[in-house]
Amino acid sequence: MRHAYYSYTREELLSNNPKLPVLVMENNEAVFRSMAEEMAEEIKSHNEKGEKTVFICPVGPVGQYPFFVEKVNTEKINLKNVWFINMDEYLEDDKKWVPETHPLSFRGFMNREVYGKIEKELLMPEEQRVFPDPENLGYIPELIEKLGGVDICFGGIGINGHVAFNEADASMSKEEFLAQKTRVLEITKETRTANAIGDFNGALEDMPHYCVTIGIWEIAHAKKIRLGCFRNWHRAVVRRTAYGEATSDFPVSLLTGHPDINLKITEFVAALEG
């Protein structure tokens, strides 16, 4: 059965009552600048009130980070009361973190490209730069509860609708899927293939098979969810997200009813040609 929403034009995508707000921006830079600006403004607003800021942060998309780092350093935004909880990390076959020197390591990326480029007097303490740990899976759900919740979860959408590495699982009910918290899991062939093409020059045989990820539960309970899509195959992903059935076979569809969510996409993704 062919799904009509995959052929929606830009106008139809925006006007046929999508299940979540879809914001079209000129290009990748505009999407990433918008994400960086929202990160910075949320932190500044909380700092002014003497409140902590808690983000769930992805490594994919990553285009927002150079703009965020520039804003922090230029505007002297104090991150001392900010927590970055990263979504996920690749694992070796023994289910331990890949080393930070691995070209796909999310820890390595964040340390090099984010934490390593922020002025030290502005940077949050190391214990506030959090990654899911395969040897301490309960830590992040407990930390989030202790901190009073997540202010914003930023992220992208995978080719099978996954957010973080919450892979599609049609065998689970919606309720069962949404109850999943931080865990170790095997990465699907679809995700390994898409990530190999997008992030690893197509080196599929060297892609990790396992990961540790925060759960869809942690994401769904964030106060705000902000998603960004910009790749060529996101054209279909965005249309299914906005118009498809809510199902554990396409996990992001289970988030579209969140009270404060939006999806930022490029004009390229909104279009069907070009």
Automatic annotation (TrEMBL):
GO molecular function ontology, one term from the record: isomerase activity
PROSITE patterns, A to Z: GLC_GALNAC_ISOMERASE
Keyword Transmembrane helix listed: no
Gene3D superfamilies: 3.40.50.1360
Highest rank taxon of the organism: Bacteria
InterPro entries, per database record: GlcN6P_deaminase-like (IPR052960), Glucosamine6P_isomerase_CS (IPR018321), NagB/RpiA_transferase-like (IPR037171)
Keywords on record: Isomerase
Protein name: Glucosamine-6-phosphate isomerase
Organism: Blautia hansenii
Organism phylogeny: Bacteria, Bacillati, Bacillota, Clostridia, Lachnospirales
